[in-house]
Amino acid sequence: MSADPSSVHIPVLGPEVVALLGGRAPSLRTSGWIVDGTLGAGGHSALLLKAMPGIHVFGVDQDPEILDLARQNLQPFGDRVRISRSRLSNLARLARKLRCDRPVGWLMDVGASSLQLDRPSRGFSFQKDGPLDMRMDPRRKVTAADIINDWGEEALADLFFREGDEHRSRHIASAIVRARTRVPFKRTGALAELVAETLGGGARIHPATKVFQALRREVNQEGAELLAGLQTAEDLLEEGGVLAVIAFHSGEDQVVKRFLAEGAQAGRWELCSKKPIAPTHHEVRRNARARSARLRGAIRLRAQSASQPPAPTPGAGANP
Fold this sequence. Notes:
Layout: H1 14-24, E1 33-36, H2 43-51, E2 56-61, H3 64-74, E3 81-85, H4 91-98, E4 105-109, H5 114-117, H6 144-150, H7 153-164, H8 169-180, H9 188-199, H10 209-219, H11 222-236, E5 242-247, H12 250-265, E6 269-271, H13 281-286, E7 294-300
Parallel strand pairs: 1-2, 1-4, 2-3, 4-5
Antiparallel strand pairs: 5-7, 6-7
């Protein structure tokens, strides 16, 4: 994947993320490391690096194609950036391996990237035909096609309801099981067409939206990855460090809300606000995908006594 570094998509809630991390953690104004656990093409990290000249960023992502873009886009920041390929669930192990200072900021922008959704070859979109894949990390073994063709009708229905909030999940699952006995599903277009035919028109959003969301979340184990990222942030953040999480799925936002609320009750976190920060009307008009984004932040009150974690020493550069 190649792109003009200047053409990076506009990061959702960018100014709000900078204000949350920079305003709530005074140490970030002069020095310290921020972990960007979902680096993507580096849009949020670039904003943070520009706004706070003294900070460094340790960026990780599980998608190797998008990491190539991040390396291009963050190259101007030189040794203030270090990049590694990792899932959120592997960050704790990576942190122990690096044996570096505790980060003073931690960012997660969970869900699929616009860059993934816009590439038909990745199989995330119901609007463009492509292989029924949906893996953010190509090292994962299970694809969306495996789930659609191998899972039983009840399991599919439960998945569409649980991860997609699709209330007609049993109707859709039944139609899929009948159709796959004739021809297995291999392409996103065929699945999207079947779901649309099964549900009919008239909906405000495409009929296949929730089914594709559920498949993507299952393929990439997004629920488990989010919890692992939250727990790792709690374990590794320096006392007084700030966690910022952007969620697009209402279920994910509730997971973040519950995790931070329970931590606040136990004295581990101080919530930055009771309600999440939502995008402005201006941002939604400019970028329709921002409409469901919600940003929550919290300050770490008591660091764990674990061994030193991520954030490589300055001068390490942007490594593969």
